[in-house]
Amino acid sequence: MTDATLSTQDNARQVLQSVFGYSDFRNHQAEIVEQLIDGGDALVLMPTGGGKSLCFQIPALIRSGTAIVISPLIALMQDQVDALQQNGIRAACLNSALDGMAVREVEQQLTRGELDLLYIAPERLMMPRMQRLLSQVHIALFAIDEAHCVSQWGHDFRPEYIQLSILHQYFPDVPRIALTATADERTQQEIIQRLGLEQARVFNNGFDRPNIRYRIAENNGNAREQLLRFIRNEHDGEAGIVYCLSRKRVDDTAKWLSDKGLRALPYHAGLSNETRQQNQSRFLREDGIIIVATIAFGMGIDKPDVRFVAHLNLPKSIEAYYQETGRAGRDGLPSDAWMLYGLQDVITLRQMQESSDADDSYKRIERHKLDAMLGLCEQESCRRQALLHYFGDRLDKPCGNCDNCLSPPETWDATVAAQKALSCAYRAGQRFGVNYLVDVLQGKANSRIQQFGHDKLTVFGIGKELNTSQWRGLFRQLIARRLLSVDLDGHGSVQLSQSARPILRGEQTLTLRKLAKVSAGKTRSSNFANTAHSQLWEALRAHRKQLADEQGVPAYVIFHDATLAEMAERQPQNREQLALISGIGERKLDAYGDSFLEVIHENIGSQPQSGDSNAETVLLLCQGMTPLEIAHRRELTVATVYRHLAKAIREGELELADVVALDEAELQEIRFAFEHSEDKRLKPIYEALGGEYDYGILECVRAAS
Ligand code: ADP
Ligand code: ZN
To answer: What pLDDT is recorded for position 592?
Structure first.
C-alpha cells in the first residue's frame, strides 16, 4: 500500500467521522470511495439501506469542485439536500419544482464554486443551458443514481437516462459512479454498455436485506384482525405500509384501522391528486403514519424509518414482493415484511392470469412467476435463502431472521387427506369450487348437496378429521402445487391435473407444511424496540419533532431513529459522550447537542438490574422481546422461556395479556378445553384444540386460571 492510498483512506475516514458521525465504513463503501477519489469509475450494486449515498458524498467533499448527482426522484431531492445541509455540507438541487429565481440563485452558487453537491433531474442536465454551465465549472464527479432506469427492460425505464452516455464524451476526465439497488445480470450489462462504464470497477453487495424479517402466514379469514394485532403488538406508533390489491379494500382497511384508533391513510390512483399528495407527504413527514395503498404507492418513497410492510394480498411475483417489502427498513434497523395469503388469493391471481389477453409466451412467464411466489409461501425452509436464490444470489446458512428459521414449521403426511380431497373433486364431476367440496367432505347435507345427490357419494362425510379452515388450507396447497387447477369460468371450480394421479393411486406420498396459527405469542421484532417505548425515547422523539417542525424538514433529517435509539440506550451525559453516538457529526453536535443532553437529563430513568434466570426472561419480555427472541438471545429452548413466563403469571408478576395476544374468542376456546378435560395435562388439551396453539401458550393460559 502506498502512502498516497493510505492518506486517501485516512482522509475519507476522517470525513466519515467528523461530518457524518459514523465510526466505520460499511459493505464496500471504503473501496468505492477510494476508487472515486483516485479518479476511477464505479458501478455499485447495493441493496436499499446499504449506504449508497456516502459512496459519492464523501468523494464529493474530498475531490475539488462540485459533484453532480443525477436522480429521477425529484420529490426526494429537497429532503436529501436538507439532510446534507444539516451536516454542514453545501448542497443544492435543480428541478422543475423550483421557480426561476431559485434556479438562478443555484446556478450562481454553482458557477462561483460554492457547492459541494448539486442534485439534478436528468432532463435538465441535457438542456443546452445546463451543458454550457457545466462546461464552465469544475466538476468533482458524476453520480448516476437509480442507474437501472437506463434499462429498457426494467419497470422504471426513463428515456432521458439513455442520453447520459454523453457525459463520458463531454467530460472524459471526470469520474463517474452509477448506483442501483435492483439490477439482475442482464440489467447490469445494459447499464455498463449504455453508460459507457466498461472501465468501471463493479462492486456487488448482493441483494440481501438482513434487517428485514420475512414472515408469511395464512389468512385465517379475518385478515384485518390479524393485521391489527400485528401492528398493535409489534409496531405500535410506528410507520408502515399496508398493501392491498383493490382500491376498495384500501379504502375499507384504512377506514377500519382509523376507527380502531390507528393513524392510517389511504393511497390509490382513484383518489384526487390533492388527497394523494397530502397523504403521501404526511406519511413522509409525520412520525408513525400507516399508509394503506395499492401498488401505485411506492416508487420514490425513500422514507428511511418504515418499520413494516404488510401485504394483505399475494403479490403476483417474487420481484414485486421483494420490491415492495424492500421499502421497509432503509435505515438498516430491524423491520418486518409481513404477509397474509389464502386460498382466495391463489384462485384470483390464477384466474386473472389465465383470462388475460396476453400472448402465450408472456402468460407462460407470468404463470412461472406466480408459481415461484406460491412456492415461497409454502416454503418450509429459510425464506431468505429461497428469495436470494431466486435472484441468483446465495446465502450459505439459514438466516435466523425469517419465520421459518425462528419457528420451523411442522410438516405432516398429507397423503390420505390429499387423496380424499382429490377424489372428492373428481367424484363431484370437477365442476365445483372449494367451499362446496369441503362441505361434502365434512358431510354437510345442505340442500345444494342433496340436489346434486352428492350426499350419496362415497366421499361424503369422510373428512371429519379436519376442520373447515384446515381443508381450505389443504386445497390451497394442492392448488399452489398445481395438483389441482382452477377453471377459467370465474366460478373457481377445481379440476385434477395429471400430476395428481400418482398421489390418488398411492404411488406417491405428499408431505405438507402444517397449517400454522399466526404466532399468537406477543411479538415485537425490533431490537431497538427495547428502548423504543421508554419514556426517554418518547421525549427524544418529541424533541426531534419540534426541531424538525421549526425547520420544515422531516424528522429523520434531524436524526435517524438509530441515533435516537442509541441515545436512549447509552444516555450520554456530556458532549464528549454524545459525540460517540453514531450519526452525530460535528455540525449536528453543535446545533443540537446541548438541547438533546437536556432532554436526556430530564428524563433519565434507572435501569432495572437482571437477577436470576426467571427474572431475566421476564425483564427481556418487558423490554419488548418475543419469547422466541428471548430463547434465541438466552440460548434456551422456547419451552423453557414459556415455563419462566408461566411461573411469572402464576406468581402475579405478569398478566396473561403481557405474554400472549389472544382474542376473547380464542381464550374462551382454550379455557373451555381446560374445563372439559379430566386432568390439567397439556397434551390432551393441545390435541383437542387441533394443535392450533403452542404448548407454551397453553401453559400460560393454564397458569392464569
Ligand atoms: P441507500 O441509498 O443505499 O438505500 P443510504 O445511503 O440512504 O442507503 O443509507 C442508509 C442508511 O444507512 C442511512 O441512514 C445512512 O445514514 C446510514 N449509513 C450509511 N453508511 C453508514 C455507515 N458507514 N455507518 C453507519 N450508518 C451508515
Ligand atoms: Zn431464514
So the answer is: 95
CB 63 within 8 A of CB 11: no
Grid coordinates of 125: 442536465
Q: Please tell me the CATH superfamily of domain 3-204, with its number.
A: P-loop containing nucleotide triphosphate hydrolases (3.40.50.300)
**Rounded Cα–Cα distance for residues 314 and 210 (Å):** 22
Q: Which parts of the chain register pLDDT below 50?
A: 1-2, 517-529, 532, 606-611
In this structure, the dihedral spanned by the alpha carbons of residues 188, 194, 196 and 202, taken in order and rounded to 10 degrees, is -10
Query: In the chain, what is the straight-line distance between the N-terminal and C-terminal CA atoms, in Å?
Result: 70
Strands (E), 219-362: 240-243, 264-267, 290-293, 308-311, 335-341
pLDDT for position 373? 92
Q: Write the CB contacts of 274 (distance below 8 Å, at least 6 apart in sequence).
A: none
Q: Does domain 212-406 have CATH number 3.40.50.300?
A: yes
Amino acid identity of residue 348, one-letter, is T
Domain residue ranges of the chain, discontinuous segments joined by +: 3-204, 212-406, 411-513, 527-604, 611-704
From the CB of 326, is ligand 1 less than 6 Å away?
A: no
The pTM for the full model equals 0.71
Ligand 1 atom nearest 304 alpha carbon: 14
3-state secondary structure of 94: strand
Q: Whose CA is nearest to atom 24 of ligand 1?
A: 22
Specify the amino acid at residue 635. Answer: E
Topology of domain 611-704, per CATH? Arc Repressor Mutant, subunit A (1.10.10)
248-282 confidence digits (pLDDT tens)? 999 999 999 999 999 999 999 899 989 998 999 89
327 close to ligand 1 (CB < 6 Angstrom):
no
- Residue 578 is predicted with a pLDDT of 93
Q: In this structure, what are the phi and psi dihedrals at residue 237, rounded to the nearest 5 degrees?
A: 75, 10
Is the CB of 331 within 6 Å of ligand 1?
Answer: yes
Q: Are the folds of 3-204 and 411-513 the same?
A: no
Whether domain 527-604 has CATH 1.10.10.10? no
Q: What is the pLDDT of residues 141-151, one digit of tens each?
A: 999 999 989 98
- Please tell me if the CB atom of residue 13 comes closer than 6 angstroms to any atom of ligand 1: no
Contacts of 593 (CB under 8 A, 6+ apart): 575, 578, 579, 584
Domain 411-513 class, CATH top level: mainly alpha
